[in-house]
Amino acid sequence: MYHPINEPNQKKSCLQVYISWTSYINLVISIAALAFGIYIGVKNKSVWSNSSFDWNKTLIALLIAGSVFLLLASIAGICGGRKQNKCCIFIFQILSIILALFFLVAGFIFLGLTDSHFTDIKDSTCQDKGSNGTEIFYYGQEAYNSAFSLFCTQRCPCKVTNTEVKSYITKNYIQMVPFMQDNGSVKVQDCQDYKTVFSNSDVKNQANWLQSLEDSFDCTGMCKKPANIYFFSDINNGIPDNDTCKEKFQDFVQSYGRVAYIVGLIVGAYLLINAILAFCLCCRKKNSGQSLYERFANY
């Protein structure tokens, strides 16, 4: 009787095993990076969108695009390693090199960009309109000065229900005490004369941004504080921190750039090392006459 001979399974090369495991790790990284990109795109969205430094969308778009391509590279690597598909391994190698350079270059670009913006913000004194987008601080300070002249005054009494805030105002801002009333406003935008006082459109346009700064960073005032209370968000949120909103925003911009740089450097270096190691494995047999494709997909 004929008995078929069971042919032994072909043993996978070091390259196949290496790419398979690396691809699984890349898959996890790509999903994490994609989720991180969506998260930071939603978080503090109003802080960016209402300022003239709105390059956050560019960073998020690049991060998401890089994550999607890394996901594709991971799938190609898994197929190449498990199915012994030379074309998939070739695609994995090429995408790994491209993505490594992409993340490294993007990290350095955004580090330089945020450092430049940090310097511009730090140098702004809110005394002139300036340039490079720093006019937002001039108009922001004007908005706070206008808010101080209207909010918690006879023209616009304020409604203070927070006992800590009420005690703080009573101790530090005597002129506001008579104008804390139960039927008052909780922020300057609710004042009846808001549109009249904020007739300058450039100043009025800062209200949404200043509200997002106060909500996000627990701050008040731009370069200086007319009073240490919230003007554009609910006054009953408590007592703002000691730093002004400009100081909080400049620290935020700098830390944002550092995070982008570190993430780009780590991911880029990791992918570059993987690509180099895999390339070395591919070229371990230096057969003459092999094309680049054959070397990348060599078993």
TrEMBL record:
Task: Give the principal location in a single coarse category.
Answer: membrane
Q: Which InterPro entries match?
A: Tetraspanin/Peripherin (IPR018499)
Q: How does it sit in the membrane?
A: Multi-pass membrane protein
Q: Which key words tag this protein in UniProt?
A: Membrane, Transmembrane, Transmembrane helix
Compartments where located: Membrane
Asked whether the UniProt record includes Transmembrane helix among its keywords, one would answer yes
Single GO cellular component term: membrane
> Per its UniProt entry, which superkingdom is the organism in?
Eukaryota
Q: Which parts pass through the membrane?
A: 21-40, 60-80, 87-113, 259-282
Q: Under what name is this protein listed?
A: Tetraspanin family protein
